Amino acid sequence: MSLPRCVALFALFVFAPAVEAQSLAGCPVLPADNIWNARVDGLPVDPASDDYVAAIGAGVGMHPDFGTVYQGAPIGIPYVVVPGSQPKVPVSFDYADESDRGPYPIPPHPPIEGGAGSDGDRHVLVLDQGACRLYELYDAHPVAGGSSWTAGSGAVFDLRSNALRTDGWTSADAAGLPILPGLVRYEEVAAGEIRHALRFTAPATRGDHVWPARHDASDLTAGRFPPMGERFRLRADFDLSSFSPRVRVILRALQRYGMLLADNGSAWFLSGAPDPRWDDDELVSELRRVKGSDFEAVDVSGLEQDPDSGRAVPDGGEEGFFTSPSVPGFAFKVEIGDDARPGRPEPVCIPETVCVSGALPGRSELFVRIVGPKPNGYLWPTLVKFSTSRFEVWIRQLATGVTRHYVLEGARPGVDELTGLFDRTGFSPD
Q1: Which residues pair with residue 336 across a beta bridge?
Q2: Phi and psi at residue 286, to the nearest 5°
Q3: 128 to 106, 111, 158, 204: CA distances (angstroms)
Q4: How many CA atoms lie within 13 A of 222 on its CB side?
Q5: What is the pTM of this model?
Q6: pLDDT tens digits for 360-392?
Q7: Where are the beta strands (DSSP E) in 53-107?
Q8: How far apart are CA 238 and CA 305, in angstroms?
Q9: Selection from 23, 41, 38, 31 nearest residue 312 by Cα
Q10: Which of 289, 183, 189, 291 is nearest to 249 (CA)?
């Protein structure tokens, strides 16, 4: 089918960076394309969202499970960074068949969740800075002054890898996931941005798990209960303007990256690392204003590339084309002109929408939604300005190999729509 050259309407949307991995002590905290580091503000709502929110507690306020000190012990899940030369000690496990064998590089007197005398989860998290490997223990207890340890379970994660644990295996967390990547850390909040999903708990979960989780811990079977690994996000229309700057950073991350259900516990308890610089009153009083009804469950299945991998971005195709799981049958390529720095495009799409993106110079990511004959009416917010004026987009129909070429000229900073000429030939937009 061949159609004349005509004018189409493009909507341009600029978001904060989503392609740079979070880092800690010189190590990536999982690859940049890992599901923990993937934005979910453009993904569809899970059909069971209302049931899940009701099961956790629609009227229950969020609570920061982190802060300064309470009853003599730091509030939150602490971690410690050790050099590659840190001596390793043996660890024995209650759930040895689902734990990674030791030894573990646990230093003398490491921070323990709840303090040395805690009778709680007693997580111990150790980051080996030399190998960029994360060692996590649940119910950890030192033996003979720390010359060896016992633990309920333990897991080791290569922070440069997207590999998931064996399906069915726990970790130091019920969902079989790492804990450290989902913590709220003061340094990130002070820097003004959190670029990853967060960890939270719920009192009742289903005896099931969804990608990227590998394990569950419940006998409940009713579909109204959320499975382990379910992703939730703060609704896009939730007004952040009345919150303090630090809490606003956390809430903005919950809108963009959301949070993963990782363990059974109190409703909407958000996990973080303890730090004396937190303001406990600020965290508790402001986060409790955010109710369960302000969240929605997200369907992240379209980002899954391999059930045994946490990678959330499709591989690039030949000649720079990439495919999108949300727009089956098509591949895409985008180039950016003028002063913008070209980068490998990463797709962020929702069903029935053709989306492409490209990195803008060092500061943001651009998403282009093509509004064709069948717009679905989904609206994206424009958060920051863009700084380039020419975009070229190629869309290839995989079944025929035919490519459609779009050229957008005259983009202006602060304007989120423009007309662009394109050659709509070869296949029908229907």
Answers
A1: 391
A2: -85, -40
A3: 9, 15, 10, 34
A4: 7
A5: 0.72
A6: 333 233 344 433 333 332 222 222 223 344 555
A7: 63-65, 69-70, 73-74, 80-82, 91-93
A8: 31
A9: 38
A10: 189
